Amino acid sequence: MRELAVTEVSKRRLLIGLADLGLPVTPYWHADGGLAFDLLSSSEGSPVVIGHANGVITIDLAESLAVYRERLKIELGESYRTMLGHFRHEVGHYYQARLLERPGGPMLDECRALFGDERASYSDAIERHYRDGAPTDWHDGFISSYATMHPWEDFAETFAHYQHILLTLNMTANGGLQMLREAQPALPTDVKPRTDYSRADMSEALGDWRWVSHLLNRASHAMGKGDLYPFHIPAPVVDKLDFVHRVVVAARVEEPFLGLAPRPTAPSASFS
After folding, report:
1. Can you list the pairs that 173-179 forms with residues at least 24 positions away whose Cβ atoms lie under 8 Å?
2. Residue 114 and residue 49: Cα distance in Å, rounded?
3. Backbone angles phi, psi at 228, to 5 degrees
4. Residues with Cβ < 8 Å from 79, sequence gap 6 or more?
5. Has this prediction a pTM greater than 0.85?
6. Could you tell me which of 63, 157, 195, 220 has the fewest CB atoms within 10 Å of its CB?
7. CA-to-CA distance for 61 and 5, rounded, in angstroms?
8. CA-CA distance, 202 to 117, in Å (whole number)?
């Protein structure tokens, strides 16, 4: 099935990115609440709700179809919608539950101070969001309108953007990209993206990202397309990204995929 093949590319890119960030991944056959993927298709007649529950990420394979995905993007007023974006958002829920929402979690209070109290009714939040929409001033404190719905969604959206930013910087660094001030006087200094920002403050990554994303957007315009990264990052989101960065750095392990050999009987959910 073509939908599955396209989706698997995004899933593998997600997992490689998590390895690059050094994040631990525990598969569901190793522990309750471990990571699993349930790949279903609404194109077969049954509706599929993309989401996360107790480690299981459900993905709608129909989202791999450009026409289907673009229609939803327009209907929902989104500036960005990709299969990889779905994976990166949903894995944010997995890591919030695993790394933060646990008894005695040392960063939970700070998380609630930045994103809000995740114990607020999620069902009420969904109803309110789809009835009233996002606040008109959402651009001042959130990375997307969807992030305004509930603290869980704010964290997941921010976590997805953390991956977008750090892993795109990683890719440009591996490709040898450098932006030199002598060639571009607008630069405050030379910009040399890094493959790893774990020993740097998030402000340094965002400083590089400001100029790299501007260059990538201009390159996309040169091909007659829109911004590659069509987002504005306000000061409150900078603070949220910094928090995510500290969570990720604190959780880093040397071999995040150690022991991930599949069990002999393949499960219904896909993990590869």
Report:
1. 177/212, 179/211, 179/212, 179/215
2. 27
3. -70, -40
4. 227, 230, 231
5. yes
6. 195
7. 9
8. 24
Nearest to 76 by CA among 6, 15, 133, 143: 133
Residue found by looking up tokens 């995004």 in the block: 10
Instruction: Determine contact, residues 137/153, Cβ cutoff 8 Å.
Output: no
* Both structure tokens of 84: 């990889």
Rounded Cα distance between 266 and 260, Å, is 13
List Cα–Cα distances, 67 to 41, 64, 83, 158, 262, in angstroms.
15, 9, 13, 26, 34
Six token digits for residue 182: 């002598």
The Cα-based distances of 148 to 8, 167, 271 in angstroms read 30, 25, 31
pLDDT along the chain (272 residues), means of 10: 89 96 92 93 88 96 94 94 97 95 83 96 96 95 97 98 98 97 92 97 98 98 97 98 97 64 40 31
Separation between Cα atoms, residue 4 and residue 117, nearest integer Å? 36
Which is nearest to 86 in space by CA: 69, 67, 111, 68?
Answer: 69
Q: Report how far Cα 151 is from the mean position of its chain's Cα atoms.
A: 15
